[in-house]
Each structure stands twice: as C-alpha cells, then as structure tokens.
Design brief:
heterotrimer, A alpha+beta (277), B mainly alpha (213), C mainly alpha (676), A: 277 residues, Helix Hairpins, Immunoglobulin-like, 2 domains, 5-stranded mixed β-sheet, 5 helices, elongated, B: 213 residues, mainly alpha, 6 helices, membrane (chain B)
Chain lengths: 277, 213, 676
C-alpha cells in the first residue's frame, strides 16, 4: 500500500506533487534547522569567542529577508497547489484504453458494496477492475460517513448518505491492491478493508460473465439485509436485479441503514458496548 | 543570580520616532465592566450567526413539510416586533432613571419592559405551540429544526433577560443604586438592546424573506 | 405509544446498574484506582486539617495566580489520564496485527475519542489558560484580571467538564466517535448510548468556562495595563494572549452552537445533521472546523509567546524584530479563521475552492516562519544560557519546523488526497501540538515556576525530562509518518497489513521513552519540593528577566505590586534594572498606600457544583435534577450579586512591610553585582 509505489496515473501525480512539495520545503527547512543548531551552539554563554551583540534587535534587511523567504516558498507551493488541484480534480475523467467502466460504491456498516450497473453485477469487499481502463466511481453511503480510498491508485473521497460524490481513477498494472475506508465509521471500521483485483482488459469480461452466473441476487430486499450492521469476512457476489438500485440508495428511497439497535419506545437504551453489538 | 544588566536596550528599533502617547494606566471599573460585557455580546452574536447560517443552509430542506410562507403569520410577528422595539425604549428610560437615581421611573420603566417582554414571549410560545399541534414541530423537517432553534434561541435569551430584569428590580429595591448595581444595570441594558438587534435580524431573515416567497 | 414512565424512570432517568461496566475490567479498575486515590487525598486533607486552608486559600480564591496554578494542576493531572490513553492505544496497535489485540473495538474507540478530547480541552487548554492567568497581569503590571470572580467561575466550570469526562469511565461510557463526534455516527440512531452525551455536555460546560476566561483575558489586556504600558510595549506573551483570547471569544460560540445543534438532534429529534428529513452532515463539518481550526491557534499562539519570552531572556537580548512579531501574531489570528475547509478537501468541493483554501492555509506558514527566524536572530549575538526552558525552546524550534513542513504538505490538496485521515496526519498534528503547545507549556512551566512558588525547579531532572521527551517524541511519531506513507489510516483497532506492523512496534517503544520523560518531570517536581530551601529564589528575578513579572517578589504578594510600575519602553523591567544601576541605587523612600483587593468567593465552586449536577442529570435524562441544578446555579449568582462587600483593604503599613523585604533583597544583590 506504499503511496510512493503508485499503480495508476492519479496516484503517480499525487505522489509526485507530494514528493516535490517536500523537496521545495526542505530547501529552506534544512538550512533553517542547521542555523538554529549552529546559532544555539556558537552563541552559548560559555563560548568566549562569540561576540555578544545585545543591541542587534532590529535589522530592516534581515526582516526583509525573513518575510520574503517563507513568502516566496508559499508562492511557489501555492502555484503547485493551484495547478495540482485543477489537474487532479477527482471529478475529472482519467482517459484510458477501452470503454470506461462505471462502478457505484456504497459504504455499508461495515463493508463495501460495489455495483457494476452496466454489467449488472455487484460484489462485496472485493473490487475487480480492468487495467488501463477509465474508471468512473460514483460513491454514496448507506448510513454514516466513510472515505473510499485505494492508496496505490490515489485520491480519496468521502461517501455520505443522501449524496453522490464522484471519483475518477485508472489502474495501470495488473495485480492485487488493497483499499480501505479512511474515515472512522464505528465498531467494525477496521474490517472495511477491501481487495482490489486489477485484471487484464481481456479477462475482465470473463470475470463479469462468471460473476453474472451467481445465484444470489441483489435487489432492495437483499440490500436491506446486507446493510444491517456487521462484518463481512467473505467476498460475496451478486447478480444485479435493478440497475437503478444505486440511485434508490442515494436518493434515500431506500431509507438509511439502521444503527446498532432500535431505541425502545420509552427512550431507554442501554449503555456499554457489549449489548450494542 | 547576579544582575548583569549592563547593556542591551530594547530601543534599537529605529521606528520610535516622534511623540508616544503614554498609556494612562488601568481603566476605571465601569469602563472595564462595560467593555467585558461588549466582548461577551460579540461572542453571543457569533453564536447566533451560527444558527442564522444553519437556517440559511436548511431553509429549503422541508422534507415535503410546510414551507416558511405557509406557516408564518405576519400579523403576530409585527406585534412581537413592536413589543420588542418599544421595550428597548422603556429599557432606555429605566437606564436613564437609574443614572439619575430616580426609583419611581426606574421601576416603571423596568416593569413596562418586563410586560412587553412577556407579551413577546407569550406570542412566540403560542406560535410554537400552534405549529407543534399541527404536526409541524421541529422534528418534522430540517427547515423547521433550524427555524425553531434560531427563533427559540432568541426566545431563550429574552426569557433569561426577563429573569435578569426581575433580579435587577429586586436588587435595586434591596440595595438601592449602588455602584455595582448600576454597573449590572448597564450590562442588562446592553443585553436587552442586543436582543433587539438580533430580533431585527431574525425578523428580516426568517419572517420577511421567508414569508414573502 | 408512549407508556406512562415508571417512578424509577422519573427518578433515575436512563441510569441503572448496567451503567457500571462490571464486565469490562480495564475501565473499572482504572476508575476504581482513581476513585480510591481521590478519596485517599480527601481523607488525608480532612484528617490533617488542611481543608480550611484549601477552602480559604485555593478553592474560593479569586487571585489570578492561584487560579492559574489550579488550571495548570488540572492540566497536569489530565495529562496523565490522556497519556495513559495514548499508551494503551500504542500497545494495542503494536499487538493487534491479525488479531484483536487486548482492547475490543467498543473500548478502543472510547479510548481514542477520550484521548483527543482530553488532550485538547482538558490538557492543552487549561495549561495555556493557566499560564496566561498566572503571568499576564504580572507582565502588565496590574493587580488582578478584569473579572476576578468570573475567573474563578471559569476555572471551576472547566474542572466540571473534566470531572464529567472522567466520570464516564465508571458510570456509562464515553463517546466512540472520535474527538469531534462527526454525525451521523454521533446521532442517536448510530450512537444510542450516553457516550456522545457525556462528550457534548462536558464540552458545553467547560466551553462556557473557556469563553469566560477568554472574555476576561481580552478585557484585561485591552483595558488593564499599568501606566505607560502602551500596546507596543507589551511583552510578546501579552500580545499572543490577546490574539489567542480574541480567537476564543470569536470561535468558542461556534462550538457551543454546533454542539447545541447536535444535542437538539439527540434529545429532541431535530434534524440538523441526521440522515433523515433534510439534515446536512456537511454543515457539521464546516461549523466544527470553523471552530476547530482557530482552536489550533488558540493553543499554539500562547506557546509562541512563551518561546518569545524564553528565547529573549536566555539569550540575554531583547526579542529580535518585536514589531514584526506583533504583526505576525495578529496576522495568524486573522488568517486562522479563513482556512477551515482544508480539513475536508476530500469531501468533493471543486478545485477552485480546494486550491483557494489550500493557499490560504499555506499563507499562515509565512508569519509562522517569520517567528521562527526572529527567534533565530534573537539567539544570534546572544549569550545563551541553556537552562531547561531554553532547551525546550530550541527543541521546539527544530520540532515545529518539521511539523510545519508536513502541515504545509497536507495543505496541498493533491497531496492531501493521499494523506487525509492517515497516520501521516496523526503524526503531523502531534508534531505541532506536542512540539509546539506541549513543549511551550513545559517551557512556560519551568520558566515561571519560581515566580509562582518562590523556588526554582531542579535542573538535572528537568534536562533529563527534556531529552527523554524529545527523543521519545521522535521515536514515536516518525514511525507514524512512515505508516501513513504506507497507506495506514487512523483509528484502526486492528489490521492485517504486515508492512505496518514494525512501525507500530517502534512507535510503542517511543511511547515508553516518552513516558520516562513524563516520569522525570514528576521526579523533578518531587526533588525540587524536597530541596526547595536550596533552590529558593530570594530576589524574584531568578533568570535575569526582562519583563515586569520579575520586578516583584517570588511568589508575588497578593497585590502583585505595591505601586503600579511606570513603564517607559519595551522590556520594562530590564530598563528599570539599568536605571537602578545608573542611579547607583538611589531610591526614594516610597509612600505606600492602602490597596483594595477583591474578596474571595465560593461562587465559582458552588456554581460548578450545580453545573456538575446539571450536566450529569442531562446525560442521564434525570429531569428533576436538571431543574434543581439550574435553580441552584441561578441562586448562586443572585447570592453573589447580593453581597455587600466585594473588596477588602490591605493597610499601607502591611503593604510597606511586604514590599520592603523584597526591595532589600534585590538591592543587596544588585549592589553585589555592581561591586564586581
């Protein structure tokens, strides 16, 4: 999951900016730290060779320099930030080879549901994508906030109930990656890691065909079962019944997922974590 | 520790040019109290601005419930506004009376202020009770949540103000126009006027903008 | 439909025996130990007959110095609590590789939430407010803060908040949502327990205390300054105090309003941040960070002020570029309100918005950088004495620059797209908060301790504490930077990524080193108290200081100064020392006058007592107790307003007697120095 080992153009650009920014700043940070240590050492009270200059408390020239150094650095970095933010806008498509793949990701308590509306299949905690293709993600949440993040593909984005956020990525190399939720979402949060299988563009249709033969069907009912709080250890796959399922979730036609337990009518709910699970 | 204060003055900064007006020293208590209370009022206004902001964000989130124009009654709001503005005037009268130590006019001014405040609260309470009974309580929609909180927060301030007002009257009755009582009276007057200003905001943002649409 | 509530439900609300975590040994034992310790201390106090002394001299005191000391004591105790949480988290993450570790999620999640809440609200805040309380009136040359009794109220309300947070350890639970309790997770449907209520009510109550402290200190700096103390002659610490408290006054009401909305959602079914009926979670994000980002500067600006004092004193020079520093401070104060969105670049705002907020955030680095350079040039040409406070200052400068670097890095939106919410971010804000605020608090503690208590702290243990803390800090947090670069996100109770594990183990080792630092600090206190006669500061000026707090005795008399000092320039006390030498110590015999001081008052303590009752009752839905607490608090204020004498007089003769002792000590020492 090394951020400095990107597997796609977005992650590559992100990490390049990251590394460049660090070097730009190191160029002034390192001399400053050296100066701090050097001044502190040389002007120690016991050093008789150091000249005591108690009246050196103002210098227009020094002031000029100390305001300009950080200002110039920030101007430079500000340029990087401006250009970078625009070039790497998560909403901007990342062109690739072949036809784009549309994926709708829903964060559930506490698992990830990936819907492939065009292929009419869905998977849980396992994302399979073709290498080199343009990937358009639509993201939402069944209940609380989460963040969709595949470190080696770059750019993370929040998922929120009742809202759709967009993310565009591309994976360049075949292989296995990992994704995770980057926003704390409750007791099962650590188990929200998911597999990312980047397969060749040729074997992707095969995988779709195999998955479409699954017995399990994802419709409103099975979705409602799936969104109950719990941890999913397996990697279930589904045939997708209604390709508009994601819209029903995002527009809250399917109501948000329930919490740990229903609050009883007298408003009494017990405390402590044990009964909440 | 030896004192090696032989050199090293702070005046090497060349910009000490011309006359510097010397600070005269700590301010008198009345100034300090008023100043501190002003700072508090500013912070209170910041808090209100959050509720205003929330209202602005949520005003269209009616969740198929009523819109503002369907539930606001301009006549009641007009009466509320008149009450509050008048009460500011009578509160000012009471302040002047306190400054010249005239008990009769002080009590009269405060009593009228109190009555006007209570009328305001009664109308607001009736408006809220009416809405809740029609099923348009604050849990109906995000818009109504924001509406009840903003207007209710002001209402709570007015209630606290009435409590403070009565305490001030009791205190003048028991202690007379002592210096500390006068300082508190000044703070109360500031508070009451500030509530008026906030009401002008509530009136414009909630009832005028929301009612017309 | 709603059933008629039982008598039990009326009397006790949601409270019953299941609130005590009998099945969770760790919090139960921890809570039990704390309870026994508190009881033991109480019994000891009563048996030894210290209670009247404590009551009259401390609990009811409205003396800003005493209140400052109590704030710092509260912060130190809570530092141990927050620190234990940190140790537990580091151990959990070190062993929870492909296993559940030793803490189940519902417990681990409470721990990291409590750690953040406690460290920010009940360690960092009271520590800096305590130092400001202690020092600012002395530096301004006045006798007390603007509102002494309110000051006491503010402190005790802060203590109430701390008490409630700790109460959640044994009765009920604490929030399991993180230290900012983001909805909808913190809404009733996803957090039905009392944890979030404990969180919100303790912050509401202590928030009132903080606001009171803020108003008090703003008014003090702006309206209570001694003769000749023009704005541009104030010590740097007063300037940063002003900036920090202006931020408190402007930002804390936002927190109050935001938490009030969350509480309305939870208690009365409102829909501010719920998933249903049009609630908007993004509004919470915006509001909470509109408070949260200024909060960072509320904490770090006073630390900057402390370092300015320390660096200039121990370099034996005036602060370099004083006006530049003032400008930088006020610039930070203003800009800090314009950058809140950088906490959620990844929420999907457009590139323009992200870039603008990113650049605004970077701009804060400019005045901050200027401050670093000005400290650097203060050292240049100085005669630096490496007493413990100066060690903390230099340690800070090195540490904080790295923290600043990583901070600017996450202000670049595309970089933040990779680092948001990661361990890298965790490392970054610990780097600035520990390296900035905590080092600053420790420096201030070492620097002003002699002023508060009349004796210096042991240097050997102090230096040991510094080196262990400094080293421990780096061993703990460099691995977290590394883990963040490996994609590790924060708040993980367990994980199964092998490459993260070594870093977590190193971080746990670092935590052990850091803990040794804390132990050294405790040892320093113990050793110093034992050797206090040898460490006694007789002159009131142990460090050869430059500002007015050193012009009075240590500890200062209750009235601080027999006369309001007359200030003629920056570094007021330094100028006086020079003047004293040049006039070969000829002093007029001053004519002492009676001094009026505010009387002590139990208002703060009683008010906090009722606030505690009210807070607890609100958390557990015990409505009759809420009303009782409310009436009690109101009655307290009325009783306070009714008292006839709010001041007492110290006769001129007594003032003279106290002042002369200190003057004699000083003169003898100055003449000795002159003779050499």
């Amino acid at each position: 999951m090394n951020l400095l080992d990107p597997q796609g153009p977005v992650a590559a650009a992100n990490s390049t900016i990251l590394v460049d920014s660090v070097f730009i700043m190191l160029a002034i940070v390192v001399p400053t730290i050296v100066a701090i240590v050097a001044f502190a050492f040389w002007f120690r009270a016991s050093n008789t060779r150091a000249r005591f200059q108690p009246d050196f408390v103002y210098s227009g020239r020094v002031e000029m320099v100390v305001w300009s150094i950080p200002a110039l650095t920030v101007i430079l970095l500000g340029g990087v930030a401006w250009i970078g933010s625009h070039q790497l806008d998560p909403r901007a498509p990342v062109p690739g080879t072949g036809s784009p793949v549309r994926i709708q990701a829903v964060s559930l308590d506490w698992k990830w549901l990936f819907i492939y509306p065009d292929q009419r299949i869905a998977t849980v905690n396992s994302l399979t994508i073709p290498a080199g293709a343009e990937l358009n993600f639509q993201l939402t949440s069944s209940s609380v906030m989460n963040v969709f993040f595949i470190p080696q593909l770059g750019s993370m984005i929040y998922t929120m109930n009742g809202m759709v956020t967009n993310l565009n990525l591309r994976a360049d190399n075949e292989g296995k990656l990992q994704g995770l939720s980057a926003h704390f979402s409750g007791d099962g949060f650590p188990d929200m890691m998911f597999d990312v299988n980047v397969v060749s563009p040729l074997s992707f249709p095969d995988w779709v065909a195999t998955t479409a033969k699954t017995d399990a069907v994802l419709n409103e009912d099975s979705y409602k079962k799936l969104m109950q709080q719990g941890i999913e250890k397996g990697r279930p796959t589904y045939r997708l019944d209604d390709p508009r399922l994601f819209d029903l979730i995002a527009t809250q036609h399917i109501p948000p997922g329930p919490g740990p337990e229903l609050v009883s009518d007298a408003g009494r709910s017990h405390t402590g974590g044990v009964d909440a699970r | 520790m030896s004192m090696t204060a032989t050199a090293g003055r702070a005046h090497a900064d060349p910009h000490h040019i011309g006359l510097v007006i010397e600070h005269p020293g700590p301010a008198p208590k009345r100034t300090v109290t008023a100043y501190g209370f002003w700072v508090f009022l500013l912070s209170d206004i910041v808090m209100f601005s959050c509720f205003f902001a929330a209202y602005a964000v949520l005003v269209n989130q009616t969740a198929d419930g009523p819109k503002g124009s369907e539930i606001f009654e301009q006549r009641n709001v007009a009466i509320e506004t008149v009450c509050l503005l008048l009460s500011s005037f009578t509160c000012g009268m009471a302040s002047i009376a306190a400054d010249v130590r005239n008990r009769f006019w002080f009590y009269l001014g405060m009593a009228v202020t109190c009555v006007l405040g209570l009328i305001f609260l009664a109308i607001e309470f009736r408006e809220f009770a009416d809405l809740v009974s029609r099923g348009y309580g604050p849990s109906r929609s995000a818009f109504l949540s924001a509406f009840f909180s903003l207007v209710g927060c002001h209402g709570l301030h007015v209630s606290a103000g009435v409590l403070w007002l009565l305490t001030m009257m009791a205190q003048v009755f028991a202690k007379g126009f002592r210096a500390d009582v006068l300082r508190r009276m000044m703070c109360f007057a500031l508070f009451w006027h500030a509530l008026d200003i906030i009401w002008v905001g509530v009136f414009s943002v909630v009832y005028l903008l929301g009612g017309g649409a | 439909m709603q059933a008629v509530p039982t008598l039990e439900a009326l009397m006790l609300g949601k409270l019953d025996w299941s609130a005590i975590p009998f099945d969770q040994p760790i919090p139960l034992i921890a809570g039990g130990v704390v309870l026994v310790a508190i009881l033991a201390v109480l019994i000891w106090v009563v048996v030894k007959g210290h209670l009247p002394y404590l009551w009259h001299e401390w609990i009811t005191s409205v003396d800003h110095k005493r209140i400052g000391v109590m704030y710092i004591l509260l912060a130190s105790v809570m530092l141990l609590r927050g620190g234990s949480d940190a140790i537990m988290m580091r151990i959990q993450q070190a062993i929870a590789y492909q296993s559940q570790g030793y803490l189940p999620p519902e417990h681990y999640n409470q721990i990291f939430s409590a750690h953040g809440t406690i460290m920010i609200f009940f360690v960092a805040m009271p520590f800096v407010i305590g130092l400001m309380n202690l020092v600012v009136p002395l530096q301004l040359g006045v006798r007390d803060v603007a509102f002494p009794t309110l000051n006491s109220v503010g402190f005790w309300l802060t203590a109430t908040g701390a008490l409630l947070v700790n109460l959640s350890l044994v009765i009920g639970e604490f929030a399991r949502t993180g230290w900012l309790a983001f909805p909808p997770l913190s809404e009733l449907s996803y957090s039905p327990g009392v944890g979030v209520d404990y969180y919100a009510w303790s912050l509401q109550i202590s928030g009132v205390g903080t606001l009171v402290a803020g108003i008090n200190l703003v008014t003090t700096v702006l309206k209570l300054r001694t003769k000749g103390m023009n704005y541009l002659r104030m010590p740097m610490f007063c300037w940063t105090t002003l900036a920090s408290n202006l931020l408190i006054v402007a930002a804390f009401p936002i927190l109050t309003a935001t938490l009030a909305m969350l509480l309305l959602d939870r208690y009365l079914g409102f829909h501010f941040f719920t998933n249903e009926a049009g609630g908007n979670v993004m509004m919470f994000m915006n509001l909470i960070w509109a408070w949260g980002h200024p909060e960072v500067y509320i904490l770090v600006l006073p630390a900057f002020g402390i370092f300015s004092e320390v660096v200039s004193t121990f370099s034996g020079k005036a602060l370099f570029g004083y006006r530049s520093m003032v400008l930088a401070t006020m610039a930070i104060c203003v800009i800090s309100f314009m950058v809140w969105l950088h906490h959620f670049f990844t929420m999907g705002a457009g590139p323009d918005v992200n870039a603008i907020f990113g650049i605004a955030s970077m701009i804060i680095a400019v005045p901050t950088g200027v401050k670093i350079y000005n400290w650097l040039f203060t050292m240049y040409g100085g005669r630096i004495r490496f007493a413990t406070p100066m060690l903390w200052a230099v340690g800070f400068m090195v540490t904080f620059i790295i923290g600043g670097l990583t901070g600017v890095l996450v202000a670049v939106p595309p970089a933040d797209f990779m680092l948001h919410n990661s361990m890298f971010l965790v490392a970054h804000f610990h780097n600035v908060i520990i390296g900035g605020v905590l080092f600053g608090a420790f420096a201030g503690f070492e620097y002003w301790f002699p002023k508060a208590f009349g004796f210096r702290l042991d240097e050997r243990w102090g230096k040991l504490a510094f080196w262990f803390t400094f080293t421990g800090f780096w061993i703990t947090f460099v691995p977290l930077y590394a883990a963040g670069m490996l994609g590790m996100t924060r708040r993980l109770q367990h994980y199964n990524v092998a490459e993260w594990r070594p870093w977590m183990i190193v971080a746990a080792i670092g935590m052990a080193v850091l803990s040794i630092g804390v132990i050294c600090q405790i040892m320093q206190l113990v050793v110093s108290i034992r050797n206090r006669e040898a460490l006694r500061d007789r002159t009131g000026d142990p460090w050869d200081g430059r500002s007015l707090e050193w012009a009075t005795s240590s500890p200062p008399p209750v009235f601080n100064f027999a006369f309001h000092p007359d200030v003629r320039g920056e570094d007021a006390y330094w100028d006086m020392k020079i003047a004293a030498q040049q006039q070969s110590l000829e002093h007029d015999v001053p004519e002492y006058q009676d001094i009026e001081m505010p009387r002590n008052s139990p208002t703060g303590f009683v008010c906090a007592f009722f606030a505690t009752i009210m807070g607890f009752a609100l958390i557990w839905h015990i409505w009759w107790m809420v009303i009782l607490g409310g009436i009690g608090a109101f009655a307290t204020f009325v009783v306070f307003a009714w008292r006839d004498h709010d001041e007492y007089v110290i006769p001129a003769a007594e003032v003279a007697a106290i002042d002369r002792v200190n003057l004699e000590e000083r003169r003898s020492l100055v003449s000795m120095a002159g003779a050499i």
